[in-house]
Specification:
Elements lengths: L10 H14 L1 E4 L5 H12 L7 E3 L7 H4 L8 H8 L3 E11 L30 E6 L11 E4 L22 E3 L6 E6 L4 E3 L8 E10 L12 H8 L5 H9 L8 H4 L22
Antiparallel strand pairs: 1-7, 2-3, 3-9, 4-7, 4-9, 5-6, 5-8
């Protein structure tokens, strides 16, 4: 962040940003990074061991260039306006869409196999997603982010043919110049466009969340407690490990996308509303 100093968001900025986000479920920040910054970030992405298609995570520890994005003065004020000051970064990754790839599944963001619940028919803002687009996505058919405007205000999106959403009246393809970004609600129904280009589309994604979006008692349970649980028989050992927050072998990523062998509690009850895209 420039000089480590962030201007305080004005009340007018906060109110305008929240109104726009409340209505649409997303806010676009066009052309916030210049060509030199874009080139340096693309070069940093090229140094990663990216999959042919999909996500590479995390990235904020892979280069200071990625770390600098999360508190950039062009970015962070919007996150603060939408979530307040009690936030941190929950996840970071680069998503690759190869040439010729079709759309990904329609989905909302959040944990599996349950979605974040609705409260009185309203979906809470639990994850504030930030997408940063370094390539020219001014035209459709380049792996653009595709959203259904206002869909974050619907209780859930299950039922019917997901492909019919391509004909939705509020479907928006995010067509932006390089160096642009978009913040969007975790419950916003979204997918990606075809990539009809001859080059892969790379995008950087972060998720901001409240700092209390984790256990209160500890970051990791005390080792003495973990060792005691490991002496217990199954299935109690696995369930207790889940309940006290023992880190799964595949890392923190598994907390949001758990497997029954390390999170046996998910096998005890079927979710009322399964997560989209699962």
């Amino acid at each position: 962040m420039t000089n480590g100093v962030l201007p305080r968001p004005t009340r007018e900025f906060v109110d305008q940003t929240r109104r726009k986000f409340s209505d649409d479920g997303f806010v676009i920040l066009p052309s916030i990074f210049d060509s030199e910054r874009i080139c340096r970030l693309l070069h940093a992405i090229e140094q990663l061991s990216l999959p042919y298609r999909g996500d590479f995570r995390p990235i904020i520890d892979k280069s200071p260039l990625f770390l600098d994005l999360i508190d950039d003065p062009a970015v962070l004020p919007t996150a603060l306006a939408l979530m307040g000051g009690d936030l941190h970064v929950l996840t970071s990754h680069v998503t690759t869409i190869p040439p010729g790839a079709g759309p990904m599944v329609w989905h909302e963001d959040g944990p599996r196999p349950w979605s974040y619940p609705d409260v009185g028919g309203l979906r809470p803002l639990m994850l504030l997603r930030l997408g940063i687009f370094l390539q020219d996505l001014s035209f459709p058919g380049r792996g653009n982010l595709v959203v259904v405007r206002g869909s974050h205000r619907e209780p859930f999106h299950h039922g019917g043919d997901p492909e019919q959403r391509w004909a939705h009246a509020e479907l928006i393809r995010i067509c932006v110049p390089p160096g642009s970004a978009v913040f969007f609600h975790n419950a916003l129904w979204h997918t990606t466009d075809h990539n009809r280009q001859t080059w892969p589309r790379h995008a950087i994604y972060f998720a901001y969340g409240h700092t209390w979006h984790r256990p209160v008692d500890w970051f990791r349970p005390p080792q003495t407690l973990v060792e005691h649980i490991q002496t217990l028989p199954e299935p109690r050992r696995g369930l207790l490990a889940q309940l006290v927050g023992v880190e799964p072998s595949c890392g923190a990523y598994a907390y949001m996308f758990p497997e029954p062998d390390e999170f046996p509690g998910i096998s005890l009850v079927e979710p009322d509303v399964p997560a989209s895209g699962a």
